Amino acid sequence: MAQSKMLTKLSTRTTQSLLQVSDTAKSNEGGKITIRFKTIGGSIPNLKQPVFKISRNSKFVSILKFLTKKLKLKENDGGKIYCYLGNSIVPNPDDELGNLFDLFKVGDELNISYCNMVAFG
């Protein structure tokens, strides 16, 4: 079996790079992100205000609840909402918005398209 070598000291350049990445991650932790909502199709109403700010630490399920409340959709009326990032990706409700923002932002906004029926796939 091969043995691993223990690093006792990192080079200055490596240390600076790690500190920079760590500082960037810390500065993004408590911040807010901008989300722009767009409808797909004409069967669901547009939001009067399509742009909102929300905490990076929030889960995607909060977006689903927010849209359901804002659009006054009721579960017993078949009022489901389907959301997409980039008109193709369906996020998991447990995904953190900050991570989705870092991966799928356009400019400085996370574009979320929504409709009341499956639009893609």
Descriptive notes:
31% of the residues lie in helices and 20% in strands. It is α+β, with helices and mostly antiparallel strands and 121 residues long. It has one domain: Phosphatidylinositol 3-kinase Catalytic Subunit, Chain A, domain 1 (Ubiquitin-like (UB roll), Roll), CATH 3.10.20. The protein has a four-stranded mixed sheet. The termini are far apart.
SS content category: alpha+beta
- What would you call the shape? elongated
Give a count of the beta strands, DSSP E runs of length 2 or more: 4
Helix content, binned percent: 25-40%
Spatial strand order of the main sheet: 2-1-4-3
How many domains in all? 1
- What is the CATH C level class, in words? Alpha Beta
Tell me what the CATH architecture is. Answer: Roll
Q: How is the biggest beta sheet arranged?
A: 4 strands, mixed
Beta-strand residue fraction: 15-25%
What's the CATH superfamily, by name?
A: Phosphatidylinositol 3-kinase Catalytic Subunit, Chain A, domain 1
Number of helices: 3
Average of the residue pLDDT scores = 83
The low-confidence runs, each spanning 5 or more residues with pLDDT under 50, are none
**Span of the ends, CA to CA:** 48 Å
What's the gyration radius in Å?
20 Å
Which fold name corresponds to the CATH topology? Ubiquitin-like (UB roll)
SSE string: HEEHEHE
Q: Which tags fit this structure?
A:
121 residues, alpha+beta, Ubiquitin-like (UB roll), four-stranded mixed β-sheet, 3 helices, 4 strands
